[in-house]
Design a protein that fits this description.
Strand content: 25-35%
Number of strands: 14
Strand order of the largest sheet: 4-5-10-6-7
Helix content: 25-40%
Distance between the termini: 53 Å
Number of helices: 12
Length: about 290
């Protein structure tokens, strides 16, 4: 199939792009197009106007800013994957990237496109949520910052207004004895995960858990945080913690686990708990 007719716009600056979004009534931003193009081709989505960001170099780049790593929204996933700076500053993001689709997809797909699309089975939204990332959002009204916890508000839905553009994402940089891991279960490599988890752990003296974050994907209409498991682990020596019990604690509060041909809600819950346990074990080993 082919998409329904639309008007195509290719602005040359961020100011021009947000001006278009403010002017047009039914516009959609086109970044890498790896999620949007199939939806358009199958006519699962129809828009009167597409605003292509391909010429906006302002939206690309990776740099340290005030203790965080800023990544421009139009930076490709392949660029993130190859970046030594990302690997050093935000290892969890670097570990998650190779799990996204295939190399050809990552060559075109962008980090901002994935986060703005907000697929609950995608890796990047869960990483952003786990690490308390901040989204830099801009429009003709100015720029604002939205915490990841407030950004994902429903299935394929975010706090972005119709006239707003995701400009970049700020990821906190963890220091100290830290470990990071991502685990997911998918039917085939490159498929969206049936369930998955990303874990970040910081250990102090005596291998006490100083800080930990657990993000989960494929287990709800949005990425989820394993808050109960985080609270249970905080301040305790890792030797006293059982990874399996932490995994079960992470998924226990989830009430909207999806059910489809890839698995029942009960199956996803069990797989999610195992993914958390495995990611926790690997992250702790790395931190040690």
């Amino acid at each position: 199939m082919k998409p329904a007719p639309f008007a195509y716009h290719a602005p040359r600056s961020v100011d021009d792009a947000v001006a278009l979004l403010a002017e047009l009534d039914d516009a959609k931003v086109l970044a890498g197009g790896q999620s949007l193009a199939p939806l358009l081709n199958m006519r699962l989505a129809v828009f009167s106007d597409l605003v292509d960001l391909r010429h906006l170099d302002e939206l690309r780049g990776i740099e340290r800013r005030d203790g965080a790593l800023w990544i421009g929204a139009a930076t490709t996933q392949a660029t993130v994957e190859r970046s030594d700076e990302v690997a050093a500053a935000v290892p969890l993001l670097a570990k998650a990237t190779p799990l996204i689709g295939h190399l050809q997809i990552r060559n075109r797909g962008t980090i901002g496109g994935s986060i703005a699309h907000a697929d609950p089975a995608a890796e990047y939204p869960a990483v952003a949520l786990a690490l308390d990332a901040e989204m830099e959002v801009t429009s003709v009204r100015g720029t604002r910052v939205v915490r990841a916890a407030d950004f994902f508000d429903g299935l394929w839905s975010t706090a972005l207004a119709d006239d707003e553009l995701l400009r970049g994402i700020r990821f906190p940089v963890w220091e100290g004895r830290c470990g990071f891991a991502v685990e997911e279960v998918a039917r085939r490599h490159g498929d969206f995960a049936v369930a998955g988890a990303c874990v970040a752990v910081e250990l102090g003296d005596g291998d006490v858990v100083e800080r930990c974050r657990i993000g989960m994907f494929g287990l709800g209409s949005t990425p989820e945080r394993g808050v109960d498991a985080e609270v249970a682990a905080q301040g305790r020596p890792v030797a006293e913690l059982d990874a399996r019990q932490l995994g079960e604690a992470a998924v226990a509060p989830l009430t909207s686990i999806p059910e489809d041909l890839n698995g029942s809600a009960d199956y996803r819950r069990r797989v999610g708990a195992v993914a958390v346990a495995r990611a926790w074990t690997r992250a702790v080993e790395e931190a040690r």
